Amino acid sequence: MLSPEILDAAQTAALLHAEAETILQLARNGTLPGTRIGKAWIFLREDVMAFLKEQMYEEASRRIPARHWHADIVRNAKLEGAVIKSLDGRHDHSMLSTGF
């Protein structure tokens, strides 16, 4: 029986809600810290939790700029639409080609 601080691949998979094969692939390629003892992989709970936190922060940091980027696109489209509407009556679209 392993101590609560040491997890096998199945326990690590259960903790991360993943398939055991996914855990083994992550361990083999060095993404998830672990070591082989004989034929079995073992992981430290603290390393697994650090891996999870890192993955969550990386994923969140990729989503946050995308959300801001989307908001900027929507805001700019609304602004451009308002400019086009205001200029439509005059048929003078020269401001749009200047990068306004």
Automatic annotation (TrEMBL):
Name of protein: DNA-binding protein
Domain Helix-turn-helix, first and last residues per copy: 7-55
Superkingdom of the source species: Bacteria
Pfam family, one: HTH_17
GO molecular function: DNA binding
InterPro entries with a match to the protein in the record: HTH_17, SinI_DNA-bd
This protein's UniProt keywords: DNA-binding
Organism: Noviherbaspirillum sedimenti
